[in-house]
UniProtKB/TrEMBL annotation:
It is a multi-pass membrane protein. Residues 245-689 form the TonB-dependent receptor-like beta-barrel domain. Keywords: Cell outer membrane, Ion transport, Iron, Iron transport, Membrane, Receptor, Signal, TonB box, Transmembrane, Transmembrane beta strand, Transport. InterPro entries: Beta-barrel_TonB, Beta-barrel_TonB_sf, Plug_dom, Plug_dom_sf, TonB-dep_rcpt-like, TonB_sidphr_rcpt. This is TonB-dependent siderophore receptor. It comes from the Bacteria. It comes from Shinella pollutisoli. Belongs to the TonB-dependent receptor family. Residues 1-27 form the signal peptide. It is found in: Cell outer membrane. The keyword Metal-binding does not apply.
Length: 718
């Protein structure tokens, strides 16, 4: 939309002006200092306690602020310092250097943040925001703005004992920026590849000197194209936050967001149906490829200590999302003229509203030599999702001029689906501490009610499906902190996830997908060194998953969802993170995953799961030059992400090649030149530095890796 692009560019120019004014004002006071970002909020939303790149504790693993070494599952984090150095632009880039996380299985696609963990899809039920569920359905998937995050906590493996319906891989807890007690003021402008212009700000501190009220305002505007014609990457984002802290026993934090995202209805390259090779031109129609998503959320985190024993917490949020898109897709050569590609098209509009509230009562007490942290909770989630869809045609794509737009008339909607889901979960957990031992035992009972209404707008017919699912899930884990700092652990955990819809071949509703995990590992927080080393061995079994399969119905063969089978994922994860006094910060990972189909469609049993590599590894390092050296003020960063071979489909007929992507950064703090420039920083980040763009296939469909992007940013903090 031209109006939006113009607004974004004006916002960026305004950011340049504000940046210049801030520098000029600050130059008058050379003795001013940059204040540390001190977070007011505690651990109720999963806030990470970190030192540089090293996460030490959060509430993600137990819903109580628990050291990582005492959490009896694999858990790690993306800290604020990592976000600062790598400057990720998407959630996938944010997670790129975390173990077990597979990004890029669908190539370049700015529409969705689709990824897997330990071989299992995390897109729809694996993302949480501030320890509250952030569900997805259809194309209704919340987009994450990394600039609005303080960090990410990742809990691996089935985790329904605390969080309810969830996948086998684990969960990612996205932690919003919160108000700070000390003043924080930051403005920034960015420019980069594909005509990318962005302005952003982050302001925080006390509202005044008398009242215990603190604020934070974070926002940005971006106008940008992408490597794909007809696919913009425009965004407006605004996130206000407010904390009221009348005393040390009471805290209320309000978190909000409003954002608008404009991109394409599809970003796919053309894939030859005979050879399976991916071309270098767009499969869609630039003149019929608009996608606009508006999303917002408002919620609060309340905590009050009743006495020395009891703490009550209540976290709640209302989220809403509306997305509308037009898409077109070229799928085969025309029978008369092979230089023309036949194309289909469609339009959809989806809306989703989610209400969620989590009530917790925590008690800390002793029984003899045992120290207890007992947590009881009740959380409720209400989801309403509506999807309107229409399908039609668009003029064929001319391969002699593939970037030309082709006029397509508006496509009317033909189906209208509405789904209401209610989730109620009651949970109890006890963390029992004896000497160096910590025993964690928790269980949860969930009731899920799902009502689906399918309306055929062409034939004026309606069908309804009612589903009621109940499940008990639990977790047991043990950790032991040895005198020399090494902490071995072992755990067993389970999860379930309800499935909407029915099997069209049988007419029966789908049963919930269930999973269980056995995990052993070791964590080592090196004494007198800000370094954390972790290793984990895991085995996950998932049953009653959903597959697409061609089935003979009364109307003929149809590709439908069926439920059967069992998947098993086994593997090893290694991670090291450190931030040393000499200016070096580093995170390194290695993952081995053997994800197998134990029971499934004919021809797939015993095969590897599509697009899950056996080997993945990554390392990112940032080095700040010494203060007493000639290059003081300069910082250098470099990283490599390796993805091993994987199969193109569950039938394992062909392989995706192994590949490595290189990233880099350089930054300079102008305070090293003169104190008058304190707070001014220039930074350049490059991802996929050598522009490797191989094809990658998942579930039989092929895509192309995202190419090189380079972004320069100028930031002023005071």
């Amino acid at each position: 939309m031209p109006g939006h692009s113009s607004l974004s560019r004006r916002f960026a120019l305004a950011g340049v002006s504000l940046l210049a004014l801030a520098i000029a004002a600050h130059a008058q006071d050379q003795e001013a200092t940059v204040l540390e970002d001190i977070v007011v909020d505690g651990g109720s939303g999963g806030v990470i306690t970190a030192d540089g790149y090293v996460g030490k504790s959060s509430a993600t693993g137990a819903k109580t602020d628990t050291p990582f070494v005492r959490t009896p599952q694999s858990i790690s984090s993306v800290t604020e310092d990592q976000l600062e150095d790598r400057n990720p632009q998407t959630l996938l880039e944010t997670l790129a250097y975390t173990p077990g996380t597979r990004i890029g299985a669908y190539g370049f696609d700015p529409r969705f943040d689709s990824f897997t963990l330990r071989g299992f899809d995390m897109t729809y039920n694996g993302v949480f925001r501030d320890n509250l569920r952030q569900p997805g359905a259809g194309s209704s998937l919340y987009k994450t703005e990394p600039y609005g995050l303080e960090g990410v906590s990742i809990l691996r493996g089935p985790s329904s004992a605390l969080y309810g319906p969830a996948g086998a891989g684990g969960l990612y807890n996205l932690i919003s920026k919160r108000p700070t007690e000390e003043a924080l003021r930051e403005v920034q402008v960015q420019h980069g590849s594909h005509d990318r212009y962005q302005g952003q700000f982050d302001l925080s501190g006390p509202l005044n000197e008398e009242d215990p009220v603190y604020y934070r305002l974070t926002g940005l505007a971006r106008s940008a194209d992408t490597e794909q014609v007809g696919v913009p990457d425009d965004r407006l984002y605004f996130a206000p936050a407010l904390t009221w802290k009348p005393d040390e026993d009471t805290r209320l934090t309000i978190l909000g967001e409003a954002s608008r995202i404009e991109t394409g209805g599809t970003a796919a390259y053309y894939m030859d149906p005979v050879t399976g090779k991916v071309a270098d031109f767009f499969a869609g129609n630039p003149a019929f490829n608009d996608s606009v998503q508006n999303q917002g959320r408002i919620g609060y985190e309340f905590e009050h200590r009743l006495n020395e024993t009891f703490v009550f917490r209540q976290n709640a949020r209302i989220s809403t999302l509306k997305t509308r898109a037009d898409w077109a897709f070229a799928y085969q050569p025309n029978a008369v003229d092979p230089l023309l590609l036949d194309s289909s098209a469609g339009s959809f509009e989806e809306r989703m509203t989610t209400y969620t509230i989590d009530n917790q009562l925590q008690a800390e007490f002793d029984t003899g030599a045992l120290e207890h942290t007992l947590l009881a909770g009740l959380d409720l989630t209400k989801i309403r999702w509506r999807s309107l869809n229409g399908y039609g045609a668009t003029p064929p794509l001319d391969t002699r001029d593939p970037t030309a737009g082709r006029y397509t008339a508006p496509i009317p909607y033909q189906t209208d689906d509405v789904q209401d889901q209610f989730i109620a979960g009651l949970y109890l957990q006890d963390q029992i501490r004896y000497d160096a031992w910590t025993f964690t035992l928790g269980g949860r009972y969930d009731h899920v009610s799902t009502d689906t209404e399918n309306n055929d707008l062409v034939n004026n017919t309606t069908g309804t499906v009612e589903q009621r699912d109940n499940a008990f899930t639990w977790r047991a884990g043990l950790t032991y902190e040895t005198p020399w700092g090494i902490t071995p652990y072992a755990s067993y955990s389970t999860a379930f996830s309800p499935n909407a819809g029915v099997n069209l071949a049988t007419g029966n509703p789908f049963r919930p997908t269930e999973s269980e995990q056995q995990e052993v590992g070791v964590k080592y927080l090196l004494p007198d060194s800000n370094t954390l080393l972790t290793a984990a061995l895991f085995n996950i079994d998932q049953t009653d998953g959903l597959y697409y399969e061609v089935v003979n119905l009364d109307s003929g063969p149809a590709n439908i969802q069926v439920q059967r089978g069992k998947l098993r994922s086994r593997g090893l994860e290694l991670e090291a993170s450190t931030s040393l006094d000499n200016g070096l910060s580093l995170v390194a990972t290695y993952t081995y995953t053997q994800a197998k189909i134990i029971e499934g469609p004919a021809g797939t049993v015993g095969n590897d799961i599509s697009s899950v590599p056996r080997h993945m590894a990554s390392v990112w390092a940032h080095y700040a030059m010494p203060e007493d050296g000639p290059l003081h003020g300069l910082g250098l960063g470099a990283g490599v992400r390796f993805t091993g071979q994987s199969y193109d489909s569950d039938f394992n007929t062909a392989r995706n090649s192994a590949r490595a992507f290189f990233d880099a950064s350089v930054d300079f703090d102008f305070a090293a030149i003169d104190k008058a420039y304190e707070g001014l920083k220039l930074q350049v980040n490059a991802t996929n530095l050598f522009d490797r763009r191989d094809s990658v296939c998942s579930a039989g469909f092929c895509y192309r890796d995202q190419g090189r992007t380079v972004i320069g940013s100028l930031k002023y903090t005071w």
